[in-house]
Structures
1.
Amino acid sequence: MVQEEKELLLKDLNARLSYGVKVHCEWNQFQGDRISEDGELVSVNIYSGSIHFKRNSGRITEIPFNRIDGTVLPYLRPLSSITKEEEAEFEELFIGYSISQDRNCVYCSKRGDLDLGFIDWLITHHFDYRGLIPMGLALEAPENMYKVN
């Protein structure tokens, strides 16, 4: 992972921090064992390039991105996984906006001021609006990983 990708991923993780995003982490222990575990993101430090996540055991572990062996991949939903209920909610909240599942983008048909609140809605629902999954910087969330309203 190049530095620009790390920075993009850390910025994205930071935006998702308060929404309970699940992550897959891999790192080397001091004994040389490779650890691979899922958990929930609890903190992001963009300046030091590290994250903390709550492991399934309840233990909080730091994964430094500035080391070669640390990997953190969030579980995100592709826009193609949006439910009819979510799509109806989105279009009711953001008049003139629609989600193009096949093009993986949000379309705005109205002119004038943009309502950027739709970005928060996408983050809250754990959608990959930055295209991290195709870049290999995120994993596609298994169905029902996140409760769908």
Note: The helical segments are 3-16, 84-93, 117-124, 132-135.
2.
Amino acid sequence: MAAFGRNFTGEDDENLPRFNHFIKELCPEAIETKKLMLPRKFVKTVRDELSREVCLEAPNGRIWIIGLTREPGDRNIV
């Protein structure tokens, strides 16, 4: 699947970059279990491009390389 963005009319445009990002606040449970549920919309958008490891960038610029696993119901967790 090629990465592309959407133009101002909402149509797919292969010449526009697509930004694969989401914002999620970490709750204490996520820290304790070391699992973070990725937003469904994000997973749906990048499902075919996901690998076993991904990079997450925090607002302060810190990079986290994390592993992905799937749970029943096809939701991805880290």
Note: The first helix runs from residue 28 to 33.
